[in-house]
Amino acid sequence: MYNFSIWINDNMASDFSGKIAAGDRFKINNLETESTIEGTDIADLDGGHLAEIRNLLISHFKKLVLLSAAKPVTESEYYRRLFRKAHVLGVEYIKVPAGEAASPLGEKPPAAPEGDTLPGDNPAAAGKVPAKEGEAESQAESFREICRIGKAYGIGVLVENNSKTALPSASSVARFFESAGKGSAELIFNPLEYVRIKRHPFLNEFYNSRLKNMIRFLRVSDGLFVDGEAVLPAQGNGEIKEMASILLARGFKGYFSFTPYLKDMSLRDYEEIIERFKKLLTQM
Q1: Number of domains in the chain
Q2: Where are the beta strands (DSSP E) in the chain?
Q3: Tell me: the pLDDT tens digits for 21-33?
């Protein structure tokens, strides 16, 4: 059966119990969240609070499949704490903000429309000029260290294409992965962010990409070439049906990820997005 995951942001539910209740509402047991929960980063939680979250997950048959960290990859001590606490919670993947680490090795990102961002995104990295060679290697080594920490704890490390960072395209992501070492990290594929640089997610970014087998999450998102505006699935240029279809044809075992990508999105909006995507799946 297909795997679905969902991110409930703080505007939808401010506490962790509310996020779990929202997962119950949509019958989705795989949760995504920022690394900060109820105002405290998971890396800084004490044992009692960590146990409370773990017990909530167990009692509601929920799993934290993706944490999105916001701190720079150079803060290795922070990531050691985060992975250690995430391991206690049974987290499957951690996404890191790789835009700054990629900038010396990738490309300067194109201008993109303003809009909602996902947890861990780094809009400030947009427009950064390449760093000095020594700084670039330091950032790359920091990312490799995070990957080593993740491997030690059995937690996958992910990066995500983002039009506002130095990883806007499949080619920039591929170069970044090469710098990190083969097999070190994997990918969250976000169709909307490719649309925002006026690239076809399937035809331009997936079809000729070397990253096909590295995709672990497909964001269920869509948007318009004309201005990058986010729209409902299959109403824009995001080729979400084509992407889901080709991934399933290739034996995709990852997650179809629902995120609050629409402006001022509410839980009611999720109902329509989820139903539209499920209908697309039945037509494949």
Answers
A1: 1
A2: 3-7, 30-34, 36-37, 40-41, 63-68, 93-95, 156-160, 186-189, 215-219, 222-223, 230-231, 255-258
A3: 999 999 999 999 9
Decide: 50 and 88 in contact? Cβ < 8 Å. Answer: yes
Q: Which amino acid is at 179?
A: S
CA atoms within 13 A on the CB side of 219: 29
Would you put residue 181 in left (φ > 0), alpha (ψ -120 to 50) or beta?
left
Residue 284 amino acid letter: M
Q: What is the pLDDT of residue 99?
A: 66
Domain that holds residue 219: 3-282
d(CA 173, CA 255): 20
Strand partners, 157: 94
174-223 pLDDT per residue, tens: 988 887 776 678 999 999 999 999 999 999 999 988 899 999 999 999 99
Are 225 and 196 within 8 A, CB to CB?
A: no
Q: Does residue 157 surpass a pLDDT of 90?
A: yes
Give the CATH number for residue 135.
Answer: 3.20.20.150
